[in-house]
Design goal:
With about 475 residues, the chain is of the alpha/beta class. It contains 19 helices and 14 strands. It has a five-stranded parallel sheet with strand order 2-1-3-4-5, with helices on both faces. It is globular and about 80 Å long. It holds the Pfam family Sigma54_activat.
């Protein structure tokens, strides 16, 4: 194909193409695949939303005129749910005003039909360059996010945002409940940044006694306090050129908040007992599970420091909101711990996995790891039974909601969740929803949900429409 862009940023990226013209959809998919992209083609807005629930692409190409709903409505829903996801619109001459309006609302570009293939490839490359990973991280290389095990939509979106903001030097505040993996995310951002070869220094502000925290962070000179028999460099200086991660920043004493604010403003650090400042080049990432707005209202956290730290906010979802991640995480934890303890354990019994998936997880990923370590240590058979999981959980599992209990406006998300949990098995999904298979198939058809696309290893190119 003329106009190939083989070395474009994001080459090999996953693209979602939406068009009800089966011939054009097939042609576009063939051309983009020939140019090295991984393509998912769908013929309706509902099918596009279903695919977005399964896997977040790097870019969406959509016709404005679609049969089931207006393409502008689809674009606005994508923009609302996935603001960092670039969208290219395809339009006939009569819908150019709509396309122009969409670009003012955030669409990356629009092309009129018939469009020039070379121009389309150029626009794709340009759009992908905006969300391309850091120069030292290849698109096919997930080393930057090592330890963050996920196949859930919400985590995919969060990691896509994390990779985008990693390219800047902006301070980032990571919010999330205890045990959600805030330090893992901070480390991932560091590895995806230009500072990846410099130190990543993590300090838990709530775990170090107040009397020692100032010296730990900023260092001290000889004689600065009783017992200071020599000078010592602080963790801020140790992170020079790299990233300093301040965990549980909400627990930092007010006196040290003032000193940290001065470092952020002046980019100079003064050791305890010294009047001489030393320039530092350090990026600050911080995390908290506390409500900092409430802490500011109570005078326990400085407002000026809050705005310095909270240039960008990333929020880690609790494990209960990403249940499809429980199985891959539990399985990987089990294999790792089995090797550590020299156990011959291969996996979980199906009812044991269901109990893990439906548990409440107040302690999040940390609790899941502890539960898996518990069952691995006590395992006497290759498969972990339900009884052992229930013993480790110490709380009753949550009951899977029946379909009738789900609210109507969340119907599509409910069906998607069931298909994810059952790996696309319609019989199992219908059983969990307490519906017969015929009725369940009608529900899937209503939302253009193809159960086969939820099965492991399923093809990402939609089957040709049968009109």
């Amino acid at each position: 194909m003329n106009g190939e862009v083989k070395n474009a940023p994001g080459h090999g990226a996953h693209l979602l193409v939406v068009d009800d013209d089966a011939d054009l959809l097939r042609l576009l998919s063939m051309r983009l695949t020939a140019n090295g992209y991984r393509v998912t083609g769908v013929g309706s807005a509902e099918a596009a939303l279903a695919r977005l629930s399964i896997e977040l692409p790097r870019l969406v190409i959509s016709d404005i005129r679609l049969p089931d709903r207006d393409g502008m409505s689809l674009f606005q829903e994508i923009r609302s749910s996935h603001p960092a996801l670039p969208v290219i619109l395809l339009t006939a001459h009569g819908t150019i005003p709509d396309a122009v309006e969409a670009t003012t609302l955030g669409a990356y570009a629009y092309l009129t039909k018939p469009f020039d293939a070379k121009l389309l490839l150029e626009r794709i490359a340009q759009a992908l360059s905006l969300s391309a990973p850091a120069a030292n991280v290849a698109d096919s290389d997930n080393a930057w996010r090592a330890g963050l095990i996920s196949r859930s939509q919400c985590m995919d979106e969060l990691l896509a945002e994390a990779r985008l903001v990693a390219a800047s030097d902006a301070s980032i505040l990571i919010r999330g409940e205890s045990g959600t993996g805030k330090e893992l995310l901070a480390n991932a951002i560091h590895r995806a940044s230009r500072r990846a070869k410099a130190p990543f220094i993590a300090v838990n502000c709530g775990a170090i006694p107040e009397a020692l925290l100032e010296s730990e962070l900023f260092g001290h000179v000889k004689g600065a306090y009783t017992g200071a028999i020599g000078s010592r460099e602080g963790l801020v200086q140790a992170a020079d050129g790299g990233t300093l991660f301040l965990d549980e920043i909400g627990d930092m004493p007010l006196l040290l908040q003032v000193k940290l604010l001065r470092v952020l403003q002046e980019r100079v650090v003064r050791q305890l007992g010294s009047d001489v400042g030393r320039p530092v080049d350090v990026r600050i990432l911080s995390a908290t599970h506390r409500d900092l707005d409430a802490a500011m209202a109570e005078g326990q956290f400085r407002e000026d420091l809050y705005y310095r730290l909270n240039v960008i906010t990333l929020t880690l979802p609790p494990l209960a909101q990403r249940r499809e991640d429980v199985t891959p995480m539990a399985t990987q934890f089990l294999h790792s711990l089995a090797a550590k303890y020299g156990k011959t354990v291969h996996g979980f019994a199906p009812d044991a996995l269901e109990a893990l998936t439906t548990a409440s997880w107040p302690g999040n990923v940390r609790q899941l790891y502890n539960v898996v370590e518990h069952v691995c240590a006590l395992a006497t058979a290759p498969l972990i039974p339900l009884s052992l999981v229930q013993r480790a959980l110490r709380v009753p599992s949550l009951e899977v909601l029946s379909y009738t209990e789900a609210k109507q406006r969340f119907e599509r998300n409910y069906l998607v969740q069931l298909l994810k949990l059952t790996d696309g098995n319609v019989a199992d999904a219908a059983r969990l929803a307490e519906r017969n298979r015929t009725e369940f198939y009608r529900l899937l058809q209503k939302y253009d949900l193809d159960a086969a696309t939820f099965r492991s290893g399923a093809s990402l190119v939609a089957p040709e429409r049968q009109d």
